[in-house]
Amino acid sequence: QAQVRESGGGLVQAGGSLRLSCAVSGSIYSINDMAWYRQAPGKQRELVATITSGGMTNYADSVKGRFTISRPNAKNTVYLQMNSLKPEDTAVYYCNAEVEAVVVGRKVYWGQGTQVTVSS
User: Which region, left, alpha or beta, applies to residue 65 given φ > 0 means left and ψ of -120 to 50 means alpha?
Assistant: First the structure.
């Protein structure tokens, strides 16, 4: 089994910055792709950014040029640097990791989410 835990959310004014962190722990062999999703009130969960074990990244059009996903040394931690935040970025942000886990094999795990609120 693996555990995914996010941190770093909070309240920030429009134009400000936040950095989210996500750590994966547990009985795992390796981690494949990792990603950040978000869900605003009354809306469906949407993909924000992804990063492969090889460091390739992909972003939603709405965050390109403002958000950066990183994964130092392809280890078990992924970050989301969010700059030039807008009120429409307000959401619960979730981390997602595809893990090669002991016993259960390949499985996708989700964190509990961290709230990001951007005030205008």
Answer: left
